[in-house]
Records
---
Amino acid sequence: MPSKTIAIASDHGGFELKTELKKYLMETGYTVLDLGSDSLESVDYPDFGYALAGAMKEGKAKLGVLICGSGIGISIAANRHSEIRAALVHDALTARLSRQHNDANVICFGGRTIGPEVARDCLNIFLETKFEDGGRHSRRVNKLSDPK
Ligand code: RB5
């Protein structure tokens, strides 16, 4: 198992899937750092994307999970932080490629666009797949940290 602590956050649109994935991660043996939200009450997705990025920057977790209604807003929010590579994932292939090619450290889901079983499958793949370090993918990922 790679990193034992996984940070997780969502807005109201992702709250139900967050609850499911948090339970699943804990049952699988991970420690979960839950940064909210805590209910279906309407909140602003940037607050939760930023909270997770901040926690990862402080070293509280190496990997994270973010969920909003579509997965779009919260992934944009997280990707405004240079140390975050957040990938909006829809299926097993995008989950696998996010790790192999992009060294993604945050997986994002749309709580209104993906079912819990597919999301669990994607999350497993994300957690178990290694980055294809060393060649063209490293060169490209390094460029992400140094935008022109
Ligand atoms: C909230 O209604 C919704 O806009 C949000 O969860 C997300 O989909 C934004 O990208």
---
Amino acid sequence: MIIGVLALQGDFREHLAALAECDVIARPVRRPEEVAEIDGLIVPGGESTTMSKLAQEFGVYEPIRNRLRAGMPAYGTCAGMIMLADEILDGRPDQVGFGGLALQVRRNAFGRQVDSFESQVEIAGVEGGPVTAVFIRAPWVEKTTGEVEVLGQVGEGPDARIVAVRQGNLLATSFHPELTGDLRLHRLFVEMVRAAS
Ligand code: GLN
């Protein structure tokens, strides 16, 4: 089983290291041929506007989109969540995502309040207590527009914000599990890829 990490920009190295600890083959993905060789893909954090541009320039935009449409599992963290959303709020006009998740994501959503913070977040389907979630100019899910399962939120009552979701083979978090050494979300994704292949 080979899991690719989109390696155009952002913190793909940390994801490759986390996957290596999960006993799977992890490979950086930069070329169209490499998209054909993977069983699942992590789209890392970084800057979604730049990732969008580079994905088109490197010729991987269409191949990835097509594989996602065909059911390949993917996990997007932070900018990666933006890339997997069907609708991007506060994006750049020329910004394109791969899509797949029936939701609206708001870029830099927490940024107006606080640029970067940590929070303990309970994730449905992840045992062993809350994960330490690191948010860096993070998006949130403004609203779901389809059959999206909400796995985790921060805040309470009317201030609650959706920060972890799953829809079929797609998983996304607003935060960066690759930065904490806690492998539980990577393991959840590895299980999703295993189940799909
Ligand atoms: N604000 C970034 C974006 O819009 C995401 C930040 C991150 O991935 N840490 O893409």
